[in-house]
Recover the amino acids of this structure.
């Protein structure tokens, strides 16, 4: 198991709840009887009319949010051990030398990099520019979304 450390701009994203429509029908008298055949309109035990099971709310999973082609530009990090947490950290997969949004090992610097508020603001603005289409797409699919600067760790 290794650790990857990302220093730069990233998205903190919380998912909305998704209403899953039920395809399952239930009998009012036989609550445990589930009928998956959508053509059935009546209970085969008592003849009562079937109704659809109540829709369920669940959090959207990260892989249901983005079209596959966006995954080439971003990497999603989530605490997989706690499914109740629906907060994701989304970092950039690609380094843009013209508009850097993260610290890279080949950046021109001496022994250290001083991270001041000017650098943080510049990296956040560059991140917005580099991922404008994706950010616009994500806004409608989130409860809360922020673009921040900091350190994100990923254990792989």
């Amino acid at each position: 198991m290794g650790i990857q450390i990302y220093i730069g701009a990233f998205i903190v994203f919380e998912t909305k709840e998704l209403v899953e429509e039920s395809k399952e029908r239930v009998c009012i008298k036989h609550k445990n009887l589930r009928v998956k055949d959508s053509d059935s309109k009546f209970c085969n035990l008592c003849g009562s009319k079937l109704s659809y099971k109540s829709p369920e709310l669940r959090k959207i999973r990260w892989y249901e949010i983005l079209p596959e082609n966006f995954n080439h530009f971003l990497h999603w990090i989530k605490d997989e051990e706690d499914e109740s947490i629906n907060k994701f950290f989304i970092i950039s997969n690609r380094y843009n030398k013209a508009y850097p949004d993260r610290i890279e090992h080949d950046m021109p610097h001496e022994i250290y990099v001083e991270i001041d508020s000017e650098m943080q603001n510049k990296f956040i603005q560059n991140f917005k520019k580099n991922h404008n289409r994706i950010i616009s797409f994500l806004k409608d699919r989130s409860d809360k979304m922020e673009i921040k600067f900091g350190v994100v760790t990923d254990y792989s």
Remarks:
- Strands lie at 3-15, 17-20, 25-27, 34-35, 50-52, 56-59, 74-77, 87-92, 142-155.
- Residues 117-130 form the longest helix (14 residues).
- The chain has two domains: 3-16+60-155, 19-58.
- The chain is about 15% helix and 35% strand.
